[in-house]
C-alpha cells in the first residue's frame, strides 16, 4: 500500500541524465552545453572529447550516462540518438572571504551548477 508511481515526464523515445553539483558557474557550463544541443550523440561526444574547457569532461560523462540510460532502460537504438535538450541550472553558491589590503575583506563566490541532458531517438530519413 505505497504511494502510486508518478507518471514518466519524458516521452517513450527519450531518456535523460542529470549531473548535480558541478563546480563551475552556470554561465560557463552553458557555453559547453550549447556545443552539443541538437547534435547526434556521436558528433557531440567527439566535440566534448576535443574541447579545451575543463568542465567538458563532466559534460561528456553526463552525456554517456544519458546514452546508457537510453540503451539499457528504454531499449532505444544508440545510433539514432540526438541530444534534444541540454540545460543548465543553478545550485548552491559557497561564499568565502579573502583578506585584502588595509584590513578589508573581499567576498569570493564559488558557484555550483546542475546539468540535465535529454537524448531522443530520431528515425533516419531515407
UniProtKB/TrEMBL annotation:
One Pfam family cited in the UniProt record for this chain = Ribosomal_L22
What do we know about how this protein assembles, alone or with others?
Answer: Part of the 50S ribosomal subunit.
CDD domains associated with the record:
Ribosomal_L22
Q: Which HAMAP family match?
A: Ribosomal_uL22_B
The gene coding this protein:
rplV
Q: Which InterPro entries match?
A: Ribosomal_uL22, Ribosomal_uL22_bac/chlpt-type, Ribosomal_uL22_bac/org-type, Ribosomal_uL22_CS, Ribosomal_uL22_sf
Tell me the function of this protein.
The globular domain of the protein is located near the polypeptide exit tunnel on the outside of the subunit, while an extended beta-hairpin is found that lines the wall of the exit tunnel in the center of the 70S ribosome. This protein binds specifically to 23S rRNA; its binding is stimulated by other ribosomal proteins, e.g., L4, L17, and L20. It is important during the early stages of 50S assembly. It makes multiple contacts with different domains of the 23S rRNA in the assembled 50S subunit and ribosome.
The record, for PANTHER family, names:
CHLOROPLAST 50S RIBOSOMAL PROTEIN L22-RELATED, LARGE RIBOSOMAL SUBUNIT PROTEIN UL22M
Name assigned to this protein: Large ribosomal subunit protein uL22
* GO CC, alphabetical: cytosolic large ribosomal subunit
UniProt organism field:
Microvirga guangxiensis
